[in-house]
Amino acid sequence: MSEFSLIYRHFKNATAKHQNTTLGIGDDCAVSSIPPNCELVSCVDTLVAGRHFPHDTSPYAIGWKSVAVNLSDIASMGAMPYAILLGLSLPNHDENWLAEFTKGVSDICSQHNVELIGGDTTKSEILTISVTALGFIEQGKAIKRNGAKIGDVICVSGHIGLASLALSHILNGQNTDLQNALDLPMPQVDLGQKLVGYANSMIDISDGLGQDLGHILTASGVGARLYLENIPCVDELNRLPFVQKYQHILNGGDDYQLCFTLPKNKFDEFNALYPNTIFKIGDIVETQGLQLLFNNQKVDFGIKGWSHF
Ligand code: ADP
Ligand code: MG
Fold it and tell me: Mind giving me the DSSP string for 177-212?
């Protein structure tokens, strides 16, 4: 038995048991039940050291973030996360590293009542973490990218661009107090579920607002008008020159806020019920493409986002 086959013992009791789990870590497979009238929602995201996070990122943050990005995908469907499976490829066996990493995984899981039900551990040259997330949603209620309608209001769930600013500080070798914005994203799990019955389309912002909203527009066959001055952002960004600020907001990734569209009357209803939780930043229009406006003036930015290839 290799040193890696026993590592799963670290994970055996890392999270609380979930009522839908019949059999968790320890057998060849986990066994789960799906609540009545629900569908299973699933996704996987892989994080590679040096590509998705700097090599010196803390093991706690690596654990947290590799789960967070997946819970964000589950949230973007309006689903309730249930469990994760953890595929771990490690260059070496380091007990302290594993303990910290596991703490990051278990902290975010317990915040959202998610159970670690299985995984796989192997040796590899480059640290790679691949998390599969499972969730449930009432049949037929998943909020997809292709549902945006002309006349819908475009909203985001919170301020945009801070993770990108943090990354630029780090890449410039600057000290930053924004490290957590990049390392410990907060997936909008509760809000995603509240938007079922309100939102016509939804996506989570992982690659940049411009690019991710672009996915909604393409899938729905519609265009959008964005009012840049309405996009919520923090003071650190307001202090930057205009172009720099909006490069972070439109092209920066890693925010893990939600971007969604809903009819005007549903926006008013939701806003009355949960004041100050969703922010209107634009409108869905018939004209294809993404029009950017600042105080009614047309502006032009290249929308890049993050592209791997
Ligand atoms: P098998 O050879 O049957 O795949 P493993 O030794 O790979 O068995 O895994 C044993 C048990 O430990 C399984 O239940 C598996 O899901 C779990 N496991 C292995 N690695 C991890 C991991 N990184 N995180 C969570 N569970 C894991
Ligand atoms: Mg295995």
Answer: S-HHHHHS----HHHHHHTTTT-SEEEE-SS-HHHH
